[in-house]
Amino acid sequence: MMSHAIPFAVLGSLTLVLLIHWIVRNTGDSQVPLDLDEFLKSLTDLQTGIVAEAQMERVLSPEDWEYASRAFPAHIQNMFYQERKAIVIRWLRQTHRSVFKLKKQYKRLVRQNRNLSGGMEFRLTLDFFYFWVSCEKLILLVWLWGPLHMAPSIHSTLHLARGLSIFFDRFSTDVNVLSAAEIH
Questions:
Q1: Which of 104, 139, 149, 171 makes an SS bond possible with 145, Cβ 3.0 to 4.6 Å?
Q2: Alpha-carbon distance 111 to 160, whole Å?
Q3: Domain containing 130: what range?
């Protein structure tokens, strides 16, 4: 009977450790003032990475893999497969870093601007946590099984990154409007 509970205990413990790591990782430099231009530059960096999704479609394309598996010997197929895997992992890590840099900057801007409400904070925190867990999981799964098998999960994680990017874009517009109102 106890043996059935072991996987749940392990999963619960792992989730708790990931949550604690995430909280510790994301506390800190929020007291340092941040200007909107720095935030907008980080947003542009994230949006540029998401725009590269068209190129990522090609990397995840089963047609290219089918061609390579028919046209080349096994050692070249392996090189092709390893390169594709490395590209996807690098891209996921870059997107992950961009989102979390924006999250930290977002927290700093919210604390600087007293006119903003915290209505979406809980939902946004859940989205960040879900995005972080998804990226970490995908990096591991792409490393284990390769990018072609994980393409649907990669697309859903990047869809979430695109949604966060849209949120940040709207937030920067609101902050810009509030800043302009404070000047007048």
A1: 149
A2: 24
A3: 35-183
Place of tokens 């009977």: 1
Contact 138, 150 (CB under 8 A): yes
User: What is the total count of domains within the chain?
Assistant: 1
- Is 5 among the domain residues? no
Residue 75 CA to residue 157 CA, distance in Å, equals 31
39 within some domain: yes
Cα 23 from Cα 161, distance rounded (Å): 19
Within-domain flag for 64? yes
- To the question of pTM greater than 0.70 for the whole model, the response is no
Reported as a single tens digit per residue, the pLDDT across 116-158 is 555 666 777 777 888 888 888 888 888 888 888 888 888 888 8
Residue 9 located in a structural domain: no
Vertex 29, ends 124 and 102: CA angle to 5°? 40
Asked if 43 contacts 165 with a C-beta cutoff of 8 angstroms, the reply is yes
Ranges of H-type helices in the chain = 2-25, 36-51, 53-59, 62-71, 74-112, 121-145, 151-183
Q: What confidence tens digit (pLDDT) does each residue in 64-94 have?
A: 888 888 889 999 989 988 998 898 888 888 8
Distance CA 141, CA 158 (A): 15
How many whole angstroms separate alpha carbon 27 and alpha carbon 29? 7
Nearest 5 degrees, angle CA 21-CA 140-CA 76?
Answer: 150
